[in-house]
Amino acid sequence: MKLTLDEIAEFYIQKGYSGTKLRYILEKDKTYQKLLKDRKAVLKHTHKVTKADSKKYLLSVDRDFKILSICKALEKIKIRKGDAELIKLIKSQLEEDWRSPLLKKLKEIKRRYK
């Protein structure tokens, strides 16, 4: 039986790993790393992920590529300012340091209500 990236990640999540501990254990899992390398090659081509996107975003599971793909498609069309800000925030969740953009946005909102 061939496992998927999501199944391997879910296995470790069920064992109690999350956040950086989960990332660390997945980096050590050779099967996961092989699947990840193969999958990234296919998805980068399929979803037209740029080198800059690969460096900025973690993109470790199919859902990450799907999220980025939808965000990019929405950025190409004319959308409301609020939606554009939300898309920017959603994309930030694909970054390794996803907490900083959240904190920045929360502080910005807090300033508006002072």
CA distance, first residue to last residue = 57 Å
DSSP strand (E) fraction?
under 5%
Molecular shape? globular
Number of strands: 0
Low-confidence stretches: none
**Tally of helical runs:** 7
Structural class: mainly alpha
Q: Can you characterise this structure?
A:
The chain is an all-alpha fold and 114 residues long. It is 73% helix and 0% strand. The chain has helices spanning 5-14, 19-28, 30-46, 51-56, 62-75, 81-92, 99-112. Helix 5 runs antiparallel to helix 6. The chain is globular and about 55 Å long. The model has no long low-confidence stretch (mean pLDDT 87).
Can you lay out the helices and strands and say which pair or pack?
Blueprint: H1 5-14, H2 19-28, H3 30-46, H4 51-56, H5 62-75, H6 81-92, H7 99-112
Characteristics:
single chain; 114 residues; mainly alpha; 73% helix; 0% strand; globular
Describe the structure concisely for a colleague.
With 114 residues, the chain is mainly α. The protein has helices at 5-14, 19-28, 30-46, 51-56, 62-75, 81-92, 99-112.
